[in-house]
Amino acid sequence: MSTSTDRIERQILIKAPRSKVWRAISHAESFGDWFMVSLKGKRFVPGEAIEGQITHPGYEHVTWRIVVDRIEPEYLFSFRWHPYAIDPNVDYSHEPTTLVVFELEETRGGTLLRLTESGFDKIPASRRGEAFRMNSNGWDSQMVNIENYVASH
To answer: What is the pTM of this model?
Structure first.
């Protein structure tokens, strides 16, 4: 785990084949299951926006919105979003987005999943610190969530 003011980085070794981890990340419905957002019947398509209601307790009022950036099968999945955009009374559309990148590497014993979220230095100063802190904590939880999801599916 390393961080700077601009980026969050996490990695986890998941004891599963790369194809299984890739499915959990790149298929919208599977992603939604472990990320706690309703994406039933939806697909990730590069260049397209996708949204769904967050199902995590306490955040059900939040609509999760991303724009899929890149999909490189079994290697890389990335998207852009407005970090910690949880206030329904705020229009975040004028703000810069951060870039979330998942990278997979086959290793002895499973698949190394690397997560990087970058671009926080461009987020308005008034909410940058909180967005960074909340997403940093969130990614800690999400690494556990995906590991548990892959182990049980």
So the answer is: 0.94
